[in-house]
Design a protein that fits this description.
Blueprint (H helix, E strand, L loop, with lengths): L1 H70 L2 H10 L1 H14 L5 H10 L7 H11 L3 H12 L1 H15 L8 H76 L3 E5 L5 E4 L1 H7 L3 H4 L4 H4 L11 H11 L1 E5 L4 E2 L5 E2 L1 E9 L5 E10 L1 H15 L9 H18 L3 E8 L2 H8 L1 H18 L5 E6 L2 E6 L4 H17 L1 E4 L2 E4 L2 E8 L6 H17 L4 E5 L7 E6 L1
Parallel strand pairs: 13-14
Antiparallel strand pairs: 1-2, 1-7, 3-6, 4-5, 6-7, 8-10, 8-13, 9-10, 11-12, 14-15
Helix pairs in contact: 1-2, 1-3, 1-5, 1-7, 1-8, 2-7, 3-4, 6-8, 7-8, 15-16, 16-17
């Protein structure tokens, strides 16, 4: 049965690929054909425009030849010569195109001389190149050729008149001949325009036929694909329902909007709800957090599943069942895709990770915190410092780093024992925590060395806070059992800015500042600037 299902899925995928590939190929071919037909139609329009220019030139030549025979004004000969420029240039362009091989550059020059628009010239040449020998274009080309003798005769008449080789007594006969030529050319122009119109209508018909054929074939293919997809979806639905019902883990099917479509018995048992009551519920409403914050963001879920294939959501706090049992839940989402590869809905697997969560939290805390004082350790502090450095880059904010080192702490250990030293460190942490603001960070780096970050704090404010902390430490009476003693602290301060480099560079500056405080007699606050290492503020303290 697995082999059969795999074979059916493979066949469906093959059918989908073949069908979609056929549609794409069909659309590409149709696009190419439609583009070619439209280009030819544009070329036919260019020939119609050229015919209009040709006709205007012919009219000007005929008119001014007649006017010259009436007035003997040489200006009319010049204007007649200008009128013949377009017909004669177009004739030379046609001859260049009919040459073997075609002289396309010469044809382009002649069309340009005849007044054709530069954008139309390539189309004029391409239409002749690809349609010049077809029956569709035979008629207008023949008319164009038949007009040559008439245009050449007009040119000959113009030359004879220019060279005074025709007696004025012959002018009436000459005018009759020019009028006869004109009438024949007008008829040819009309036939030429009609031929172009027939070509344009034929191309329109071919374009409509192409579009209709493509739509019909695409419709057939789409229908076939739709039927195949519907059958495949029905089979997938049945298989998925069976899988959910018999799964050994809590599983549910979730709509794109977060509604539970179906859930198996294990899913209902984990959440403590009757199985039939879960269907139709909104998962994010089922798993409300404190103050109404929802546990599930559907757009974020879709983005993560699309990017990673699956996504695991672990709640940040325990969820309480109706019977009062607190649970740490982990939800793993994966996509169910339709035949087109798009997400249709989700499969969610729920797992009770309460025991694992408590163990992980314990290990995580131990790995990042000092066991004696509860402050974070050096490794975790470096991570937090790196985050502060990064934040200063895009937030343009300022933070300050302080090193706190107890003065003469070794003597406490040597004189009163390590228990007294441990009690002293615990009390010191209490003093520092009382000085910290919300968001500030405290760490024990080792021995009697502590570091703290005053977040969103300019260095001058940090210096003042460090001075207050120094004074509180100096005023505090430390105790261990029946022993009491006083201590002081040397505090180094430096600013945290994004351009200060890596965390180690900032740590070195703070350590240098702390060393400067000790050099000035201990029990001082000393500031070092990374921007100007040569400029250090005078120490504060007693």
């Amino acid at each position: 049965m697995v082999m059969s299902g795999g074979y059916q899925a493979q066949s469906s995928h093959t059918l989908m690929r073949v069908g979609l590939g056929s549609i794409v190929l069909l659309l590409v071919l149709a696009f190419g054909a439609a583009t070619a037909l439209i280009e030819f139609k544009t070329g036919v329009r260019a020939y119609a425009t050229g015919e209009s220019l040709w006709s205007k030139g012919r009219q000007a030549a005929v008119y001014h030849l007649n006017r010259y025979t009436e007035t003997d004004d040489p200006a009319h000969l010049n204007q007649a010569r200008e009128g013949l420029v377009t017909p004669l240039a177009y004739r030379k362009a046609r001859q260049a195109m009919t040459a073997s091989p075609m002289k396309a550059q010469r044809a382009a020059e002649m069309f340009r001389e005849g007044g054709s628009h530069p954008d139309d010239i390539p189309r004029l040449i391409n239409v002749y190149r690809y349609m010049g020998y077809s029956s569709l274009f035979h008629s207008p080309l023949q008319i164009w050729r038949d007009a040559d003798p008439h245009i050449l005769r007009l040119e000959e008449i113009l030359t004879l008149l220019s060279e005074d080789e025709i007696d004025s007594a012959e002018y009436p006969n000459l005018r009759d001949e020019v009028d006869r030529i004109n009438q024949e050319l007008v008829a040819m122009e009309s036939d030429f325009s009609s031929s172009l119109g027939r070509i344009d209508r034929t191309l329109n018909g071919l374009l409509l036929l192409t579009v209709a054929t493509v739509l019909a074939l695409a419709g057939v293919l789409v229908t076939m694909l739709f039927v195949s997809a519907a059958r495949r979806m029905a089979r997938t639905e049945d298989e998925l329902r069976t899988t959910l019902e018999h799964a050994a883990v809590g599983m549910a099917r979730l709509s794109l909007s977060g509604i539970i479509r179906s859930a198996n018995q294990r899913f209902a048992q984990t959440l403590g709800y009757p199985q039939d009551s879960l269907e139709g519920m909104q998962l994010d409403q089922l798993l409300l957090l404190n103050e109404g914050e929802t546990a599930l963001d559907m757009p974020s879920l879709r983005h993560r599943v699309l990017r990673h294939g699956t996504w695991t959501l672990t709640r940040d706090e325990p969820w309480t069942r109706e019977d009062g049992t607190p649970l740490w839940l982990e939800f793993t989402f994966s996509a169910v895709r339709d035949h087109r590869g798009r997400i249709a809905d989700y499969i969610v697997v729920v797992d009770d990770i309460s025991h694992h969560r408590s163990q992980v939290e314990k290990l995580s805390y131990e790995a990042s915190h000092d066991s004696l004082t509860g402050a974070i350790n050096r490794r975790e502090f470096l991570n937090r410092l790196a985050i502060c450095l990064e934040n200063t880059g895009y937030e343009r904010s300022r933070h300050a780093l302080c090193f706190v080192d107890l003065d003469y702490f070794k003597e406490i250990n040597d004189t009163h024992g390590h228990q007294a030293g441990d009690d002293c460190l615990i009390q010191l942490c209490r003093i520092i925590r009382a000085q910290l603001r919300e968001g500030d960070i405290l760490a024990r780096l080792g021995g009697d060395e502590f570091a703290l970050i005053f977040t969103y704090c300019p260095v001058d404010v940090a210096e003042r806070l460090a001075e207050e902390l120094r004074q509180r430490i100096a005023d505090h009476i430390f105790s261990s059992g029946s022993i009491t003693f006083r201590l002081s602290a040397s505090i180094g301060v430096t600013e945290i800015r994004s351009h200060h480099g890596d965390p180690e560079s900032v740590m070195e500056a703070a350590d240098r500042a702390c060393y400067g405080a000790k050099e000035h007699g201990r029990n001082h606050v000393y500031v070092v600037s990374l921007d100007d290492p040569d400029t250090e503020k005078a120490p504060r303290g007693s």
